[in-house]
Amino acid sequence: MYAQMVKSTGERPKTLDEMAPDERAFQMRVDADIKIEPKEWMPEGYRKTLIRQISQHAHSEIVGQLPEGNWITRAPTLDRKAILIAKVQDEAGHGLYLYCAAETLGVSRDEMTEQLLAGKAKYSSIFNYPTLTWADIGAIGWLVDGAAIMNQVQLQKCSYGPYSRAMVRICKEESFHQRQGYDIMMKLCAGTAEQKAMAQDALDRWWHPSLMMFGPPDGDSVHSAQSMAWKIKPMSNDELRQKFVDQTVPQADYLGLKVPDPELKWNEARKGYDFGAIDWNEFHEVLKGNGPCNKERLEARQKAWDDGQWFRDGLMAHARKKNARKMAAE
Amino acid sequence: MTTAIKTDTALFDLALRMGDNALILAQRVGAWCGHAPALEEDIALANVALDLIGQAKMWLSLAGEIEGKGRSADDLAFLRDARQYRNALLVEQPNGDFAHTLMRQFLFDAWHHPMLVALKSSADKRVADIAGKAEKEARYHLERSEDLIIRLGDGTEESRQRMQTALGALYPFAGELSAADAVDADLAARKIAPDLGDIGKGCAAYLKGVFADATLNAPESAAVRKGGKQGLHSEHLGYILADMQFLQRAYPGATW
Ligand SMILES: [Fe+2]
Ligand SMILES: [Fe+2]
Ligand SMILES: [Fe+2]
Q1: Is B159 close to A310, i.e. CB distance below 8 A?
Q2: Nearest to residue A88, comparing CAs of B46, B27, B149?
């Protein structure tokens, strides 16, 4: 999802018998739902996988500022403008907590930023789609934050203490975002015919990319089993996707909007919605860098980083001077 | 402020000037979200923009009330053209590099905070109430701005150079904030607003001290660039409004 394609060790999880004593003790703590804390021993694979997962998540929050930030200057009322700025600000805050959580595993924020800019670290595919109309701001809050919550609620139970605690804080804010997004959609759907058409068009464009946020189907994911054994990924991609569809379709019905899937149908036996195939080709293309906005998103982050170099250097230099003056005075 | 059936146009202008300064600056600052030099700056600038939008809403609501024609804060923000805007030229200046953004903010805050402190004792209770709420926010903005100006002025050679360039470019716009016209004189005589000359003097002395700490030099004899307070703007404002008002103009009468 925000971390869609996290490479784990690529090996099947070991059984307790196959493990060395340290590793066995670790796994038993995880199995007993005891949180793992930064200073404790952990398998190298666990540490590396978590760094990948948390940093992908953090990068998603940071890059995620861009599509919505795109409408800050054009928000239609003062209240909408304030709500949108506050939301984008929350996402920056999420990025910050998550970078801090990853730093407890021995990687610095600067290193993670460099990996993002070098194209070595991924961020969620969803942020490579453009925000074309105001309704996209509603659709993102409703669908994208909705999908994020679905993922993050289960991550509150993640075995790694700092990540799990970051998720608790973040989830509260994400549910505000979702309500605010849905509120934009409600206003549009109760508005003029043009506004309603704008809302439908946004749903048409954001529906499938939102479903892709949960990552490839379980059968295709080689890295899930180990992550699930370590409890850094409590639920599978397909389980989460199904939950999201079941929750979201009635919300679309309430708005009077049509979910763009002719095969979508309630399945009474399963008590869930059946839905049509997802174009995984598109997903892999977007991850490879060929989505509609990959280039613009990375360029924007690169520019912020490059243009900000003098600013960061200036602050560091001042701190050094101030220290030197203090030392000289003592 | 009792039985006036006619609009108190000077008071209306004051509310517009205060509100438009806040709104246009928020519009500029808000554009940084996601593009600032550090994550902490993204967050801090968003805070400033949010405070200013809140203030703009209060001032423009008051302006609508004084005018008495039923215009809301949103009507005033989204449906006036450039010639009806009353913000000072300073706040509509482009974001430029981050040094320009910080310097524009500092020059504004250095006037805005003492202005709001003075407005807290306005003879008009509504003005005093808004100033009371806004003043604490403005004090925080000023503290943050001052701190950054000093650290970056007295930082690296490059950061000093950039801050100096920004100061040279923006200083000529600072004087307009404290330049009194007939409206200001009328408001001062009625104790609704302070004597702007006094605010200006205090502001100039304060700036001098901070620039000394920051190792920056304000231009000696810069002609004051003004006109925005009377509705005579730079070419930048039209584009700001085109952006900001797009939806309200493209879909007249729709609610959002
Ligand atoms: Fe977030
Ligand atoms: Fe998130
Ligand atoms: Fe969010």
Answers
A1: yes
A2: B46
